[in-house]
């Protein structure tokens, strides 16, 4: 019975939390706990720790500029025409990740939780095939050999996300709880344009970005028990400082020649992170609970690799750090255990 009590304290996704309903307290009275949960520490007679492991599946939609990247042109034409691919042509599919939570029940109304989750391989690509008629736009295309009047171009985009949180969760009574804590989140990306001209060779326009977000967050959680099911909704948001950076290089014919090498461009800015989770948990027994849920994550104020593309050709080209945002959404499936 005490183990079952611990399980009712869990909520879900980005910061699964803790709340005990009046109904849960009622069935513990015979076990020495009072129905007024906030006035009695059931931890003294039962388990105080819980954990959970989830498979997390997220896709994402970038809120970034989508400039033309590859156009069809005639050799020698300074104004390429029809757009073949844009920076948004590589689109991310649903990718798996992992989430791990450990929690400590301080008393019947308060808990501390540590949470980690990550998506390690958002990746996508798009290819255009031509016949000596593909080019990147702007003066940069005109200044290059391998990126003008090319035969094949491929866009490759890769991104990773890591999140770590420490949250304090406290009950307001009824079905609601508040939570607050510290959050660290990183988004690291690469974007590459690989161009092949059968007359000159193959070169790459490569962009790499790093984002490290630090800050506090606040949130609320609704929790209700329906028979063998727990229904939960959690939302939280925070303002963060972002230590961001970007670097980019462009090679060209002859092999080993650099059209551009920007070095590491760093900048600080304000970012936003918010997330919502809706989930349901089913009791398998006194120890194990099966959970499923839907998640929405909004990140704003980060340097996305695709947004750093610069097709001008000046000494300052490629040295600006631009920020944008994205939405990630998907499902989670996992098990939780308490002791």
Q: Could you give the count of β-strands?
A: 13
Largest sheet: 10 strands, antiparallel, barrel
Global geometry: elongated
Q: Total domains, how many?
A: 1
Q: Count helical runs.
A: 3
CATH topological fold name: Lipocalin
**Oligomeric state of the chains present here:** single chain
Low-confidence stretches: 1-47
Name the CATH class: Mainly Beta
- Kindly estimate the percentage of residues that lie in beta strands according to DSSP: over 45%
- The helix/strand class is mainly beta
Mean pLDDT: 83
Question: What does this protein structure show overall?
Answer:
The protein is mainly beta and 339 residues long. The chain has a single domain, classed as Lipocalin (Beta Barrel), CATH 2.40.128. The protein is 5% helix and 62% strand. It is built from 3 helices and 13 strands. A 10-stranded antiparallel β-barrel has the order 1-4-5-6-7-8-9-11-12-13. The protein is elongated. The termini are close together. Residues 1-47 have low confidence and may be disordered.
Write the layout of secondary structure elements.
Blueprint: H1 2-7, H2 22-26, E1 49-63, E2 68-72, E3 83-86, E4 95-105, E5 110-135, H3 138-143, E6 150-173, E7 176-197, E8 201-226, E9 229-252, E10 257-261, E11 265-283, E12 288-302, E13 324-338
Antiparallel strand pairs: 1-4, 1-13, 2-3, 2-5, 4-5, 5-6, 6-7, 7-8, 8-9, 9-10, 9-11, 11-12, 12-13
């Amino acid at each position: 019975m005490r183990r079952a009590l611990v399980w009712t304290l869990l909520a879900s996704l980005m910061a699964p939390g803790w709340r005990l309903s009046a109904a849960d307290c009622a069935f513990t009275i015979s076990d020495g706990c009072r129905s007024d949960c906030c006035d009695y520490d059931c931890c003294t007679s039962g388990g105080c720790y819980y954990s959970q492991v989830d498979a997390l599946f997220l896709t994402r939609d970038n809120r970034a500029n989508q400039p033309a990247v590859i156009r069809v042109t005639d050799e020698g034409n300074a104004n390429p025409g029809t757009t073949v691919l844009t920076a948004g042509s590589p689109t991310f599919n649903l990718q798996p990740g992992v989430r791990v939570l450990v929690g400590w029940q301080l008393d019947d109304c308060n808990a501390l939780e540590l949470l980690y989750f990550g998506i390690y391989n958002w990746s996508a690509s798009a290819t255009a095939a031509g016949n000596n008629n593909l080019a990147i736009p702007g003066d940069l295309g005109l200044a290059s050999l391998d990126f003008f009047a090319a035969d094949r171009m491929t866009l490759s985009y890769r991104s990773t996300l890591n999140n770590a949180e420490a949250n304090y969760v406290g009950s307001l009574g009824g079905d609601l709880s508040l939570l607050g804590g510290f959050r660290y989140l990183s988004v690291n990306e690469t974007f590459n344009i690989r161009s092949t001209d059968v007359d000159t060779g193959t070169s790459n326009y490569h962009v790499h970005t790093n984002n490290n977000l630090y800050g506090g967050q606040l949130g609320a959680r609704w929790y209700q028990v329906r028979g063998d099911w727990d229904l939960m909704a959690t939302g939280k948001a925070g303002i963060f400082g972002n230590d961001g950076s970007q670097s980019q290089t462009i090679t060209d014919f002859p092999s080993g020649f650099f059209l551009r090498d920007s070095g590491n461009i760093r900048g600080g800015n304000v970012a936003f992170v918010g997330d919502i989770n809706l989930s349901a948990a089913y009791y398998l027994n006194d120890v194990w609970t099966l959970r499923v849920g839907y998640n929405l994550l909004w990140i704003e104020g980060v340097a996305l690799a695709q947004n750093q593309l610069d097709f001008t050709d000046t000494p300052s080209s490629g040295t600006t750090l631009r920020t944008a945002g994205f939405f990630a959404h998907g499902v989670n499936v996992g098990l939780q255990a308490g002791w």
